[in-house]
Task: structure prediction
Amino acid sequence: MEETTNTKGWVIGILVVIVVVLGGYMLFKGPSKTVVVNQEPTTTGNGTENGNGTVATTTPTVVVNKAETVIGKSVEGRDVTAYHYGTGNDEVLFIGGIHGGYEWNTTLLAYKLMDYLKTNRDAVPSNLKVTVIPVLNPDGLVKVVGTASGNFKYADVSPSVAVQISGRFNGNNVDLGRNFDCNWQTTGMWQNRKVSGGSAVFSEPESAAIKNYVETKNLKAVIVYYSAGDGAYSSACGAGVLPETGALTSLYAISAGYGSHAKFDAYPTTGDIVNWLAKIKIPAISVLLNNHTDIDWDQNLPGVKAVLAHYAK
Result:
């Protein structure tokens, strides 16, 4: 009986020591920090006031800038994803694949740009964030190359002209390049063909996703890639070209060795994305690659660099 009592005493003594040591450690260590990965930068207060007038402390949060954002879904439920590089407050946006599989080389160009930005972190000035949306029309891309991502090769591209043309349109057979709010019409033109502009402006989930994204960001400029036309084209909607848009067009064209054009006038366009951006006073240009197969990387990289240098502070 005495031995059992002594044993209990030793156990209780050890437990007391453990509690004291742990309590001292937590007091010295202070509040724990929660690491939240892939979130936008946020700030937290030091505490909130309770009903009794006391202040309850909150746990400090360490936040890591997210590398990508799913900004919406396509008609067929595929992700429309934006990829981010840099942490600045001002943003430059690059968009590829608005016409899906018909202009699949613009998606390959966008992924090449992403690879460059991943391996050249110092290419993005400290005041900027660069965002790349490599494929705005994933459903159209799948029709032609069999995947909605940039993980495809030239051999994956359907050789059928009819299939490639079908890949221009989204899952509702709407031309996304005719679904934005600038001179929109239900029926638009593409070359000499009539195409659907959707049932209303931003009727398509892909267009609505871009609208929602753009309206919540501090965008300095937007560059949208198309094929084929060998040129940089300014945007405008009902008024003249914004002075900054004109400067951006000339800068990109000269740096990339493309022709510089005040507007696209090969045929009438309605509901165009860059013209909608002009309507809401965001400088935006269309860059048309030389053909439907090459990505013109050696031309476009100097253009990208010139744009980033232009907006660096």
User: Anything to note?
Assistant: Residues 260 and 275 are 16 Å apart (CA to CA). Residues 1-64 have pLDDT under 50 and may be disordered. The chain has eight helices and 14 strands. The longest helix spans residues 2-29.
